Amino acid sequence: EMLEKLGLKDLSKNLSKINYLDGCTTIPNVDDAEEFSKVMSALESLGFSEPDIDHLMTMLAGILHLGQVSF
């Protein structure tokens, strides 16, 4: 599963812990799974290869992980 591979499985279970979201975990009338599917389809339509998409998701996961660092 992608979330596990990216180290985001635990965070995905409790979105309120993601610092970047600042407590905003839902948007009325927006289906996150459907929107994510549209993004993935668009990336494929634009010619991104599976390894390219994996690298992009890894970079995005890295940004989420860095956002969890506190000083």
Quick recap:
The relative contact order is 0.16. This protein is an all-alpha fold. The protein is 58% helix and 0% strand.
Describe the structure.
The protein is mainly α and 71 residues long. 58% of the residues lie in helices and 0% in strands. The chain is built from four helices and no strands. It has helices at residues 2-5, 9-13, 32-45, 50-67. The radius of gyration is 13 Å and the shape is globular. The chain starts with a helix and ends with a helix.
Q: Residue-averaged pLDDT, rounded?
A: 93
Count every helix, treating DSSP H or I runs of 4 or more residues as helices: 4
Helix content: 55-70%
**Pattern of helices and strands:** HHHH
Structural class comes to mainly alpha
The best one-word shape is globular
The value of Rg in angstroms is 13 Å
Beta-strand percent range? under 5%
- Biggest sheet features: none
First and last CA, distance: 31 Å
Number of strands: 0
Q: Low-confidence runs (pLDDT<50, min 5 residues)?
A: none
